[in-house]
Amino acid sequence: MTTITALDDLVTALPVGVVITDPDIIASYRQDRAFDPDAGTAMAVVRATSTADVQAAVRWCAANNVPIIPRGAGTGLSGGATAVDGGIVLTTEKMRDITVDPITRSAICQPGLLNAEVKAAVKEHGLWYPPDPSSFEICSIGGNAATNAGGLCCVKYGVTSDYVLGMEVVLADGRAVRLGGARLKDTAGLSLTKLFVGSEGTLGIITEVTLRLLPPQAAASTVVGSFASVHAASKAVLEITSTIRPAMLEFMDKVAINAVEDQLKMGLDRTAGALLVAQSDAPGAAAAAEVEIIEAAFTRCGATEVFATDDPDEGEAFTAARRYAIPAIEKIGPLLLEDVGVPLHKLPDLIDGIEAIAANRDVLISVIAHAGDGNTHPLIVHDPNDADETARANLAFGEVMDLAIALGGTITGEHGVGRLKKGWLPDQLGADVIELTQRIKDTLDPQGILNPGTML
Amino acid sequence: MTTITALDDLVTALPVGVVITDPDIIASYRQDRAFDPDAGTAMAVVRATSTADVQAAVRWCAANNVPIIPRGAGTGLSGGATAVDGGIVLTTEKMRDITVDPITRSAICQPGLLNAEVKAAVKEHGLWYPPDPSSFEICSIGGNAATNAGGLCCVKYGVTSDYVLGMEVVLADGRAVRLGGARLKDTAGLSLTKLFVGSEGTLGIITEVTLRLLPPQAAASTVVGSFASVHAASKAVLEITSTIRPAMLEFMDKVAINAVEDQLKMGLDRTAGALLVAQSDAPGAAAAAEVEIIEAAFTRCGATEVFATDDPDEGEAFTAARRYAIPAIEKIGPLLLEDVGVPLHKLPDLIDGIEAIAANRDVLISVIAHAGDGNTHPLIVHDPNDADETARANLAFGEVMDLAIALGGTITGEHGVGRLKKGWLPDQLGADVIELTQRIKDTLDPQGILNPGTML
């Protein structure tokens, strides 16, 4: 077979051990955390150690018309790193260098470094990299950039795109180009850096990012509120965000509260209909003022219990509880994980609508949310061995996205479109914007070898 | 002539008064504030009143292969709104609606509204739109988006791109598309919104922007420092930005200080080599702490005079003085206005190098800067009636950009490339990125009718 012979060329072109053909290892790179059942099997995995390795792999794929699937830590939830039959999976997990420049408050990172490792490395210089996906301990900075990942502090500090000042990216023809750089202001030419952030590996492979850093975050004060109903909690969210910018404003529904409490036994109110966890990181006395505003909003909106603390460890326990919601609900059963967002005032409509979808399809849907920016994660629990329930869960999965679109929202706030949501992208963007997107894709990747089947 | 006949079709297609053929009015739309001497003369000016007007004009231009030059308030400093012979100038100055949504903290604006008017409209709802070009009282929000405009508070709050959540844009074929929306987090599809911000009218014409707003800024405290030398001031800039995030950190050299003092007579130290104006808007007691840090840095770096005030009006007087530097220096003579930026630690090298260029070319160059993010405005004074001096000024203009590029910087931090700097763009970006840029331009504007001659 020509491809097998050709693969020898790739093995020869790259350092020893970079091209992996062991079937067991190849199998372990078939799926990301979306566990796409339609995942294929790659002909090889390339564990790139340098930009030159990535270039060689892309050039070989271009010459042989072989699809190449870029992959960071494989923690994606939309199937953006799903292997295709006969393709190459290129993982950047071995590219892990970082250089921090405290004067320009920037860091140059290779893509394989984990988000938590970036945070730790810049902290040594007294600096802070804000974006904090719940998976920050296991997700890579390259994947964060490729999906424009979000997190809990985005409500105040913005998303990954707001922190990527520049990058090196390998194009579909194997050229490596540098975009932007450690300059806070730079409007020379088109904003290509921003275009590549969130492009999910469909336009190029990010081999380095230059990140903007901030001075350290002040210690946060935390306010937790239990509410009898989702509506009461939503009302409190609107009250707070129209007054101040909390550093965090997270939501869990009853199912999530109970699932977390089952695991962590931290004394959450199991009877509550909804829980909000808010934080203020305003400096000094300003934090106390913000905490008061949050407490007052909680109380005014009918909170059944309000607890405030300025002890960072105590606050972190509640944040950790919220972050733990997905694994906790996974104990009930495998999940279809949504990432829909709506303009903030539509949050109650979205949550009501999801409840109706769950009832109609007879499936369990738990909603957790980065409530402060309207970004929710409805979690659809289903038993994959129950074909009927799985079918109903899949219908509900689509209906939740339909609902978000109808409410003027988005099918994905921070996870990316990947393979799982691409069927809904045209409904959100419209035919004209899809055509615009396709034109840009076609001009940057005319052979269509970069992550085919993702996004478009 | 076919074009004259065809122009009748355009007049007919648009509301009465929208298409202007009066030669005097056409002449007044030849140049923006870059006063490009090579400006052409349009065949007509379209004063669009709606997106439909813009679409009709673009469709007519596409059908007749006529260049269309989009224009906001005409305050651009790079010649991005320079008329071309036989083209159409499309001005959005009559499109001035704004709707503020306090709950989602966003505003939907038409492009013709001035930046100051946007600020005022959202202030009525207790909100704040941060980007503040020095020209904020006369520049339009559409132009701000098209150039990715900056300003004085960017050092802490970022640039226009950080505040544009969505837009409506008319494409080269006359279709109007909506990109993004009032969603703080949305990673569905490519980041086209960010691509169009800063594209200087070369990819489409922005007919509406959705802006992210912040709660009001706390009252700022101001610290002003006089320094014997530019080096001492640069050192203070580095000390401050490696410790805190000032809300403003502006720089004026001796020429600028004296030019401003000539006009405003506010008692600035005329003997000083450099002046820094810093602000802290940290809430409550935190401001006092930041002011102390700034004062200490000024003193440690050898400031000859340090003045601090928490009186907002007094502080605003110094900010206004800094903003007034360009008009004040213009009294000495017409300016070639640079907008070069460098990574922060290269600021002293840049300023030294500019001094050497000025001496070598025997021209007066005054430097003012948004020092906190390394974005400088060297102002090259020249007498346009002195051909030799003008030639030397033009050589210096290019050499300053060459220097910025050599120092790892940018030819434009916030004004855009326009026509005046496009010759240097390839030197900054490199041939590969220019080719990438050209491919995107060609695929979105295959006829090349959108602002030809700008950027590329």
From TrEMBL, chains A, B:
One Pfam assignment: FAD_binding_4
InterPro entries: FAD-bd_oxidored_4_C, FAD-bd_PCMH, FAD-bd_PCMH-like_sf, FAD-bd_PCMH_sub2, FAD-linked_Oxase-like_C, FAD-linked_OxidoTrans_Type4, Oxid_FAD_bind_N, Vanillyl_alc_oxidase_C-sub2
SUPFAM superfamilies (UniProt xref): FAD-binding/transporter-associated domain-like (SSF56176), FAD-linked oxidases, C-terminal domain (SSF55103)
Cofactor(s) the protein requires to work: FAD
Domain FAD-binding PCMH-type: 38-216
Highest rank taxon of the organism: Bacteria
An annotated Gene Ontology molecular function: oxidoreductase activity
Similarity remark: Belongs to the FAD-binding oxidoreductase/transferase type 4 family.
The protein's name: Glycolate oxidase
